[in-house]
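Fold it.
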Amino acid sequence: MSLSNRTNLHPSTFILIGIPGLENAHLWISIPFCLVYMVALLGNFTLLFIIKTDPSLHEPMYLFLSMVAVADLIVSTVSVPKLLSLFWFKDREIRLEGCLTQIFLIHSCSIMESGFFLAMAFDRYVAICKPLRHSAILTHKVIGSLGLVIVFRGIVLISPLPFLLRWFPYCKSNIISHTYCEFMALVKLACVETKILRAYGLTIAFLTGGLDFILIICSYILILHAVFQLPSKEARLKTLGTCGSHVCVIFVSYIPAYFSFLTHRFGHNVPPHVHIFVANIYLLVPPMANPIIYGVRTKRIRERIIKILSPLKD
């Protein structure tokens, strides 16, 4: 094989198109994207600072929440700066190594985040259904072990993908019709049989996001069963209120994730710009919304934020 053919089959760089059909609007689209990203950075770093510096927040729910914040920061930071560079400076090129890094970090951290949501649901289940044993079951050692298992799961399941994609020949094109390197977008460019890889991707999606979501639903069924056995309406509402923030962030995270996943594989009639918009919403909105939801709905976090801001008003 000649050197030119090898270079064509194994390109060192890929070209990101952005949002097809909306190239002229990239500059305007970048403004809300940039603002959302800045709010996500500020919100998650503030959340991490508050949880770290307040010993009263060193509880399972908030420790898992801090893990979610770290995953959110990684997912958004590995994708949004390149996206803004594309929109502002027409910097379309991305090296193969950078592309594979995006794929690995975005997908592995998304799996980790799903696992952290499941761990938070388990915390709510123990806190409501077994309140007297909560502190004995979810010790700091157990929380750390759960966190490590979730991180290990994300790394192990996604690690084969970059290595396989690294050696695939790409004879169709090196142009990616997206704002970042997405797994299925790269698979579609390969000129080898990818059925096994696609099946592996579907399996991962089911064993992580799908199974996690089913277990979260099961935990809330048990929680609701326990709540409706409480004697008073006030006690039931107060108990359900402790789950409100968690339910909100689950919906904010899972809805765009599932829509993006399903349209990329089965939504052949969905316009490309719609799919890409939803994919970017998944990367941008949950990292921004999660700290806001917990900041607004959680009294202790809200009070700490007010306390931090009070000296600035003086």
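The CA atoms of residues 11 and 257 lie 29 Å apart.
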